[in-house]
Structures are given as C-alpha cells and as structure tokens.
Amino acid sequence: MVTEAPDKCQRRGVRNVTADDVVAELQFGFWTSLLSNHRGSQYGRLLWVPTLHRSFPHYHGRRRDLHDNYEAMRLLRNRIMHHEPIHHRDLMATTTRSTG
User: Fold this and answer.
1) Are residues 87 and 55 in the same domain?
2) Cα–Cα distance between 35 and 18 in angstroms, integer?
3) What is the pTM of this model?
4) CB 3.0 to 4.6 Å from 47: which of 12, 18, 52, 66, for a disulfide?
C-alpha cells in the first residue's frame, strides 16, 4: 500500500508527492493493521518493538486489545461512511473493548 500511494497521489493530480501526501493516501485499515499481532505478521519485530509502541506512550495494555479497539473504530467508521444506520447501536459497546 505504501509503494502504491505515490502513484495514487499523482493520478489525483499531486505533482510533487511528499511523505505527508503518502501518509494521507493510506487508508485507516492500513494503520490498524500495523497494530496486528496475528501469526505471520512481522510488524511486532520490525515495527512494534523498536518504535511503534512509542506512538502510544500512555497505553499499558495488550497490543491485541489496542488492535481490537482500532478495528472496532474502523468498522464503525465504514458503516457510517456507507450510510448504514447506527442510531440503534450501543456505540460505547461497539467501539470500546477491555484495554487493560
């Protein structure tokens, strides 16, 4: 996704693509996936342990719970963006999980 982002920016008319343009082009699901700890994911060793955990300095729970919370936010956001009704939902239960 990161390698495709500059091309997408250029197709949208951005002439001099910057790092900020690339970051803005990446979808929320991309950022959520960086928190994943599923088998086969190298994000833990390559990103979480050396640096990414610093993005959450006040978080002391499990990375799995953090990922689950972000995934719940992503799914709720997608429902809203697709104009699905959410007024009947318990939004606190939908977006909040045990975060330790």
Assistant:
1) yes
2) 24
3) 0.69
4) 52
